[in-house]
Design a protein that fits this description.
By secondary structure, this protein is mainly alpha-helical. The chain contains three helices and no strands.
């Protein structure tokens, strides 16, 4: 019996930690989107975008950028699904 209670406590603690991580990622994604929107409206992103377009993207780094973008999207989608499931 003692082993089962310890196992339940560990899994519940792990679940709480996972939920906290999901909420933190979801809230962070909202904050990042808000900051990017504000910077764009104030015109502060234009010099950065012009610099990146003029410089171009290294073709050999493109798979890494794609992998990073896909993992970031997956992480945000996972965290939002996890957070929404808390309210069910």
């Amino acid at each position: 019996m003692g082993d089962r209670n310890t196992a339940d406590r560990d899994s519940k603690g792990s679940r709480i930690a996972t939920n906290r991580a999901a909420v933190a990622i979801a809230v962070s994604s909202l904050l990042i989107a808000a900051v990017i929107t504000l910077l764009s409206q104030w015109g502060l992103l234009d010099p950065l975008i012009e610099f990146l377009v003029a410089r171009g993207v290294a073709v050999d780094a493109l798979p890494m950028y794609l992998l990073f973008a896909l993992l970031l999207c997956w992480l945000v989608v996972w965290s939002w699904r996890r957070m929404v499931s808390l309210f069910r």
